[in-house]
Amino acid sequence: MGEPILEVKNLHVHFETHDGTAEVINGIDFTIERGETAALVGETGCGKSVTVKSIMGLLPSATIPEGEIRYKGEDVLSLSDAERHSRRGKEMSMIMQDPMTSLNPVLTVGEQMMDVLKWQGRPRLSLSKLVRDALSTGSKAEHRERAIEMLGEVEISAPERVFESYPVELSGGMRQRVLIAIALLSEPDLLIADEPGTALDVTTEAKVLDLLDELVEERDTSVLYITHDLGVAREVSDRINVMYAGEIVEQAPTADLFANPQHPYTRGLLESIPTLSTGIGDGIEGHLPDYTDPPVGCRFVERCPHAEPACYDAYPYPRQTGSDHATACHLFDGPPARERHESLAADPVDIGTAPWLVAGGDAPGDVSADGGTDQ
Ligand code: SF4
């Protein structure tokens, strides 16, 4: 650890819509160290998937007016399509959310895995290589062997049978394991897992997440988990980035975030986790802002129980609120947690201190001394 594998700096992502420009991602910064597992957490529509698809170069209709995405120090936004394609799949890989729609229904699992092995890291079109591959039975046999071995590694008990099966013949849990096998086939250094268990029942999701955890630890793969569930993020990640309406509102090591949640949105998410003592939480009232006309100041202002008039106009830049903890809220004092990007520069405003700090209250969600909840 210690050396970043991925650095996202002041990233802005816009889309043109009939109603104007949607400013979906608004100046986010985060870093993943080598071997680290980080989570990006927030509700549906907050920009998590747009962020990771921007990293992977899978958003041809978006514009990125500002920002940098550095993979192993290299600015991937300045690379050509062919150069990005050559890194995708081999260096960086992604597990998509829904295994049913992510797998091709008219190809067998084996055909899809063989395709990945054949094309990983290669330029998009190469007729000579196509012909050479078509004549090369040796590499086909090796690829088949490697694919079946990988299906075994994701604990599929009859890998040869699954290799010959169509996705529709498999259960949801099996399809998710196949997606994990495909994502890890090329031994990527960075794996992005976009809500990898969401389409599964709770028990199968837990098994799949445990398996994924073991596999990436064995390989020392860096992982970015995307999830709407802080409980899942606590189980799988070393570090959490809480995202709201295209901005990262709080960043901290996982145990610290659960022991000392600061941003009102993070606290609202924690209060939404069902616990044995309080049952199902109240959730957070209201909805995400319109990205074509977002608030000038804090994007959470319409839903925040602690909002003050100044929050409507003053941008709450992230400030350092602990040795490795940053929070973007005017209730907290501290030096800027990152370079104050010119487009988002703002002066601090005084709206008082967080009421739970004044009252000396506990963290929400019945957080115990070790940072766990009683859910
Ligand atoms: S800046 Fe104001 S509105 Fe935004 S989260 Fe903090 S208190 Fe709430």
From TrEMBL:
Any one GO molecular-function label of the UniProt entry: ATP binding
Keywords assigned: ATP-binding, Cell inner membrane, Cell membrane, Membrane, Nucleotide-binding, Translocase, Transport
Claim: Cell membrane is one of the keywords in the record: yes
Localisation: Cell membrane
Keyword Cytoplasm: no
Protein's membrane topology: Peripheral membrane protein
GO cellular component: plasma membrane
Pfam families registered for this protein in UniProt: ABC_tran, oligo_HPY
Record domain ABC transporter: where: 6-270
Region annotated Disordered, chain positions: 355-375
SUPFAM superfamilies: P-loop containing nucleoside triphosphate hydrolases
InterPro entries: AAA+_ATPase, ABC_Ni/Peptide_Import, ABC_transporter-like_ATP-bd, ABC_transporter-like_CS, Oligopep_ABC_C, P-loop_NTPase
GO terms (BP aspect): peptide transport
Top-rank taxon, per record: Archaea
NCBIfam families, per database record: oligo_HPY
The protein's name: Oligopeptide transport ATP-binding protein OppD
Gene (UniProt): oppD_3
